Amino acid sequence: MKNKYTFFDGEIVSHNRNGILRDYVRDPQGSFRGTLTPFHLLGVHRHYWPFGEVRSSSGDANNYTPFQFLGPVAGYYADTNTNTATRLYIRARHLQVSIARWLTQDPLWPQEPAYRYVNGNPTTYIDPSGMSKIVGIGDVATITGKCCRETISMNYMAAPHGGVIPIRTTRMCLNTHCAQIGNALSKCKVSVIRFCEIFEPNVGGQDCCSIAAKYNVSGRCFCALIAAEHSNRSFRNTMQDTPASITGKTLGDTVGCAQLSVGTAQNVLKKLKKCDPGLHKSLNAPVGEGSLRRKLASDCTFSMEVLAAFVKVNTDPKCTKQPKSCATWAKTNSSAGYATGNENHKKVKCMVDAFSKLTPCS
């Protein structure tokens, strides 16, 4: 049996099973309530108790889905797609809905309750990570990191064949104690969102400070450099990083969140292997041109690590006969090889200069 799922804004809206398309009908919380055919025929209909137990179910068993209670919106996955499912897989752990308890201790305990699901309040909270609750649909969740604050709100739109589709809106801003970083971003025309994507793991981003430490390069310089490079990555660049789009690119075409070309990456990896074999081995970089391009395009952490290696092989005395400071090298030789005076090069230089007076990694 073949299943194909259709996603909208990260949430499941329909499935195609053996060539038959079914739209999902969901309740206001986002749980699967039933399926509709293109002819508006109800295939399955089910109701839940507050903690996810199936209260009643009817319809053709062939149209059941493993994405039941909060499945379409939060990814809760039933171990069986029948109406008897009482155990849900939720990334970090399994939830036993019949007793409203997790089967294993929370990895974040004692900061989070060890076994109690969403602190006993399933109508307000959801837990898509299996580790900590967030405010569910119809409300606003705020996730705060050391500098970045992400606010998530949920709204609705009508589904094509009935029901509702939750629409998630995300806003990113900086905490007040990071105002100086905000001033630098504004001055250099680097978006807050792009910065948080490479700086703040607490809101789903990467961690430029840890990567800089791993490669023994300046954290303030590397974070400034990758923020500028990542900000230069337009929406068009992002769409061109899809598997279908990167086919046929040349050695000089830049891809990924660090905007590196395969040719540059190959040269960097060759130099890194010579001056620091252990660090090179830890990268586990693909050998072939096509595999390396796909890795750079799809894996932001890997792309950032190659950029850190690029800085290292050009600034570390162990790797070059003409060592320079990261700031001096970055301002004269940006990773994408921009000509001096180019708008993208100006952004790199501006960020490195601005961050030289800050301590983002402290």
Describe the protein:
This protein is an alpha+beta fold and 362 residues long. Helices cover 33% and strands 23% of the residues. It has 13 helices and 17 strands. The chain has helices spanning 71-74, 179-188, 192-199, 208-214, 219-231, 235-239, 243-246, 262-275, 277-283, 289-298, 300-315, 326-332, 343-355, and strands spanning 3-8, 11-17, 20-26, 32-36, 42-48, 54-59, 77-78, 87-90, 93-96, 101-102, 125-126, 134-135, 140-144, 148-158, 164-174, 254-255, 260-261. The strands form five sheets. It has a six-stranded antiparallel β-sheet. Strands 7-8-9-10 form a four-stranded antiparallel β-sheet, with no helix packed on it. Strand 9 and strand 10 form a beta hairpin. Helix 3 (192-199) packs across helix 5, helix 5 (219-231) runs antiparallel to helix 13 and helix 8 (262-275) crosses helix 11. Residues 235-241 have low confidence and may be disordered.
Strand content: 15-25%
Distance between the termini: 53 Å
Rg, rounded, reads: 24 Å
Given helix and strand content, the structural type is alpha+beta
Major beta sheet summary: 6 strands, antiparallel
Spans of at least 5 consecutive residues whose pLDDT stays below 50 are 235-241
Helical percent range?
A: 25-40%
DSSP E strands, number:
17
Q: Total helix count? A: 13
Give, in order, the helices and strands: EEEEEEHEEEEEEEEEHHHHHHEEHHHHHH
Strand order of the largest sheet: 1-2-3-4-5-6
Quick summary:
This protein is an alpha+beta fold and 362 residues long.
List the helices and strands and how they pair.
Elements: E1 3-8, E2 11-17, E3 20-26, E4 32-36, E5 42-48, E6 54-59, H1 71-74, E7 77-78, E8 87-90, E9 93-96, E10 101-102, E11 125-126, E12 134-135, E13 140-144, E14 148-158, E15 164-174, H2 179-188, H3 192-199, H4 208-214, H5 219-231, H6 235-239, H7 243-246, E16 254-255, E17 260-261, H8 262-275, H9 277-283, H10 289-298, H11 300-315, H12 326-332, H13 343-355
Antiparallel strand pairs: 1-2, 2-3, 3-4, 4-5, 5-6, 7-8, 8-9, 9-10, 11-12, 13-14, 14-15, 16-17
Helix pairs in contact: 2-13, 3-5, 4-5, 5-13, 8-9, 8-11, 12-13
